[in-house]
Amino acid sequence: MRRRPFLGLLPAALATPTATRAQTQAQAQAQSPTPTSPSTSAPVAPVAPENPALGVSHRALAFPADHGSHPDTHVEWWYVTGWLRSGARERVDATPEFGFQVTFFRTRTGLAADSASRFAARQLVFAHVALTDVSAQAPAGGALHDQRVARQGFGIAATPGPTLPQAVRLRDWTLQRLAPSGHDDPHGRLRIDVRTGRFALALDLVATQPLLLQGESGWSQKGPDPAEASHYYSEPQLAVRGRLERAGASARDVSGRAWLDHEWSDQYLAHGAVGWDWVGFNLVDGAALMAFRLRRADGSVIWAGGSYRSAGGALRNFAAGQVRFEPLRHWTSPRTHATYPVEWMLSTPAGHWRVTALQDDQELDSRGSTGAIYWEGLSALRGDDGRTLGWGYLELTGYAGQLRL
């Protein structure tokens, strides 16, 4: 069964060019471009080329085309998480001061497929951004977040085409993949620009390792039915430098590490799944760890998987029965009353680790865009001896109600 996410939000997306969080609407409107701004007065750009309709299958991924959008598939996301410290000099072994998340989603609505109208809402684009200050212990917590949604087109929302440079954009929030600086430049380069009413990120990301194709060369099974699958690749160990601004504080230079996931699917959630648990960690020694599981309402596992790539490049993929998430500690949100496991024992064929949230309150309420409430936050990866081996992100969905994709 193909699920249709977010269709209950179509009226809001169609009524206005962009929808944002209710508590930041006034700020967003105050910061929106003036009538003379190019983003509102420029003529509508010509339709950009798109990737051919290839669906989700056992095919070889091709780049840079597969960095771009796949509008024939139902759902797709470009997802960047990372950690930052003050200063321009990167220290991968130092405790982070900040965590950040920047995610763009595209969904094919299945509506007006035969309409020639430019106003037909065939594709919606959503964006979530978040910043966690792990030093902030005020009652409101250190996690700040914002969200947007718009139908694609009209110079407001765009997804990347098959050739470099490529960009996914929702008004002035952008994630760009840049063209090489020269013929001898082997590094992938990305740029994040996000400004909200409470924080802003301007970050340059540079690849230090090759792409990591998840699953079977980028085909990642998500359930017992072969149709329950996605195309999925990661870019771990991205070196990050840039500027961070936060309301009430001076702008600062920052550096750190990031992880990018790009995934697209026609049927991501297996039948009976209410959500998933996922981790992505950049280890201090240069290794990369990813693991996930999809759960039923009773907590039992439908499917699991993951991978570990050593600093030397040796890759080990995990079969569905080789990954175990064991919750150790829970936190209950005072706002939604959802309870999340924020500390885990993770067991895989590559090792056993303790996953620990660096701040309990990293819940994100995205009912103003994708409709979901979920937990996503900066976490530490620790060995049996308690030593910190890396930092990354833990994502928990389906604990505040069934996730619908």
Description of the molecule:
- The structure is a single chain.
- This protein has 405 residues and is mainly beta.
- The protein has one domain (74-112, 119-396): AttH-like domain (AttH-like fold).
- Helices cover 4% and strands 47% of the residues.
- The protein is built from 3 helices and 24 strands.
- The strands form 2 sheets. Strands 1, 2, 3, 4, 5, 6, 7, 8, 9, 10, 11, 12, 13 and 14 form a 14-stranded antiparallel beta sheet that branches. Strands 15, 16, 17, 18, 19, 20, 21, 22, 23 and 24 form a 10-stranded antiparallel beta sheet that branches.
- The radius of gyration is 20 Å and the shape is globular.
- Mean pLDDT is 86; it is low at 1-12 and 14-45.
Task: Give a quick summary of the entry.
This protein is mainly β.
